[in-house]
Structure formats: C-alpha cells, structure tokens
Amino acid sequence: MGTIVKYIVLSYGGNVWVEDRVRGDLTQGSNFIVLLPKGD
User: Fold this and answer.
1) The whole model's pTM is what?
2) Cα–Cα distances in Å, from 29 out to 4, 11, 20?
3) Rg (CA), the chain
C-alpha cells in the first residue's frame, strides 16, 4: 500500500488495508479497503 495513501487516510482518522479478492488465492486480484469517519 502506498505510503502517501496510508498517511492521508490516517490523518483523517481512518484505516486502510488490502485483502485477497478470492480468499486464499493471491492470483485473483485484491480488495483495497479504505474506511473514513463520517463527517458532520
């Protein structure tokens, strides 16, 4: 995961991670999950 993306997401109080798209099969792509807190 790019350091810039992680820095930006964390600066907003969020979280970011990567998961296998097909669990256990690294050849089938990836899911990039970005969670940000809801704004006012």
Assistant:
1) 0.65
2) 22, 27, 6
3) 12
DSSP notation for 1-40? --HHHHHHHHHTT-EEEEEEEETTEEEEEEEEEEE-PPP-
Q: How far apart are CA 25 and CA 12, in angstroms?
A: 32
Residues 6+ apart with CB under 8 A from 31: 18, 19, 20, 21
Residues 6+ positions from 36 with CB-CB distance below 8 Å? 9, 12, 13, 14
In one letter, which amino acid is 32?
F
Cα separation of 14 and 27, whole Å? 28
Q: What is the chain's mean pLDDT, rounded?
A: 86
